[in-house]
Amino acid sequence: QVQLVDSGGGLVQAGGSLRLSCAPSGRLFDSYTMAWFRQSPGKWREFVAGITWSAGVTAYTDSVKGRFTISRDNAKNTVYLQMTSLKPEDTAVYYCAAQSVATYGYDYWGQGTQVTVSA
Questions:
Q1: Rounded to whole angstroms, what are the CA distances from 89 to 38, 39, 52, 86?
Q2: pLDDT tens digits for 24-53?
Q3: Neighbours of 44 (CB within 10 A)
């Protein structure tokens, strides 16, 4: 059973930066695409960014394009979300997730890491 351990959240002022990390407990290789979601109180969990392990193809939700960068380090088996120019509306719990390329289901989730952006 693979476990995702996400970390790196914290409190930052608007305009600041944070880097989130996600480390699967096992190798997922090309069987999964990795993604970051976020959820703030009273809102649905929303997709933020995704990346394929092999080719590193990325996708972003419009609200973070140009500010967030998702990347992966295959040697360290870790996925990152570099967040810059943070805004108060980015405040949320951020979750790492692994999506099966076969079923498109999100089979594994991290425990979540809180990001709080103060005005």
A1: 11, 11, 27, 8
A2: 887 776 788 999 999 999 999 999 999 988
A3: 7
Q: Where are the beta strands (DSSP E) in the chain?
A: 4-7, 10-13, 18-24, 32-39, 46-52, 58-60, 68-73, 78-83, 92-100, 106-109, 113-118
The residues with which 113 forms a beta bridge, in sequence order, are 94
d(CA 44, CA 73): 29
- With H, G, I as helix, E, B as strand and everything else as coil, classify residue 53: coil
Rg (CA), the chain: 13
Q: Helix (H, G, I), strand (E, B), or coil: what is residue 90? A: helix
Per-residue pLDDT reduced to its tens digit, 69-86: 999 988 888 999 999 999
Contacts of 44 (CB under 8 A, 6+ apart): none
Would you state the structure tokens that stand for residue 43, as one six-digit string? 């809102």
